[in-house]
Amino acid sequence: MLEAIAPQGIHGVMLYGQLTGQEAPAWVEWVTLPASLHPALAEPPLALAKNGDWGAIAFLLNRLLNPDLDRYLTTGGIRLQILPKRDLLHVMTDAVICPNQAQIGTTVAQFFRQLQLTGVAGVRVYGRRAGQKHPAWSYGADFVPRQRFVPEVTPSLP
Prior knowledge:
Blueprint: H1 2-5, E1 12-17, E2 27-32, H2 39-42, H3 45-50, H4 54-65, H5 69-75, E3 79-85, E4 88-95, H6 101-115, E5 122-129, E6 137-142
Parallel strand pairs: 4-5
Antiparallel strand pairs: 1-2, 3-4, 5-6
């Protein structure tokens, strides 16, 4: 089954069986996976993501936002859509209960900041409850200084 799945970046797996009440395994077997034979599968998802592979980026971000597999399978977890537009990445997150802005916004921004994708100057993250058309909140982070379209207001002293 693992050979058929061919997990990205995982070259092999050690399987073992243990009898109830015994500390030592009853059997151990090493299984070589396709990543050890095929260069396209050998590169780990993080390396692919740093090179701009959108599938790897979505996989890693999904795993980051949904660390609890049981909860993800029960509720559908936090779903996301990524849209690159010019030098900004727009990330829409939605879930049965609207994702928390303070947690999700900074987590997504930090993820993309660490990737250091070429040509990406910032990220805009949005959150909404599943089924809604418009976001309930938005969060932005710039990785490089951006030119403002609306001039910043300087306070006047009386």
